[in-house]
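Continuing the series of single-chain predictions for the mutant panel. This is the parent chain; the variants come on the following pages.
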Amino acid sequence: MAKNSGVTLTRKQIRSIRKAVKLVLILIVVVIVLLLGASLLSQMKPSGPMELIADEYVQLGDLPTQSEMEEEQRKAELRRIEKIFEEKDTYPIDMVIDTPYCVMFDATNEELLFAKAPNEKAYPASTTKIMTAALLMQYAKPDMTFTAGDEQDLVLEGSSLAGLKKGSQLDRDMMLDAIMIPSGNDASYCTAAEVGRLLYGNGGDELSAKEAVDIFVEKMNSTAADIGCTNTHFTCPDGFHDEQHYTTAMDLLKITIYSEKFPEIAASGSKMYRNPEFLTGESTEWYNSNRLLSEDDDYYYMYAKGLKTGMTDQAGYCVVATAKRFDHELIIVCLGSETQSIRWNNTIALFDAGFKYIREKHAEAND
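Parent structure:
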């Protein structure tokens, strides 16, 4: 036991006192914390229903997707170079050619080198398929399977050059080549129907072939307008003649530049031949009618890369041709040539003049 001023405490009593002191200290700390918390809360806005300021709040669903942002960037780029396409009185290259509607563009320097009646109405024939191919690549996924169906009844007899029959199945790569190499109207309509249903969304499978194709053609027209085409109207995905299916050399140049967003199109348009086997087992052969690409042809042009030919009685002989030399890509659009020889001779003459201008311009810059 301990003694202190006459008061005697047992060890048990001492431990009890110590516990009481600790408890008091803990209570003091808790009170201090509560007081500090109350002070902080008093400085904040009173609690209540959350207020959303419309100007500062954006729902996640309203944000653009990556593909939408890329598409807007591409359209902004086309708008940026729109001034290049404005019709002028003079161009760096001045020459006489027989083709009535024509433009030549240096895609590397973004310079319009030649133009003849560039904004006058013309019929594009199968060069239409450049837009069809662009929408195919934009909206169809690489692993998509295309099945030919009732849209084949819309194809004009004798123009099913890709060899599709109802029930034939192709993947996207085959479908692109079927459009670009043999210029198959059957492939163009199959693409239009299948992609049209995709564009429609839920319930697209219930659309008739005609309804699906119409949706696709509507997208062709809206896309053309979006990229700055001012005198273009499509009525079909293959370019078969219709008085209301028309464009201009300048508008078709814009469509071609837009298609370069998808390098697979240029690669397809450069192929002279393919021997595909459909997913359903059929085999066929496809040949390209672009004579600039064939080494055995009198019109072979060693710098040519592609891209698409076209011809109807009303449209005449048409071509969108690309070539690369001196690290410059030239694009030529020729519409309405009276004969094949005029189409090819004019295109080759323009390419030669264009590359001569580029070479001389480089030489002057290096002097």
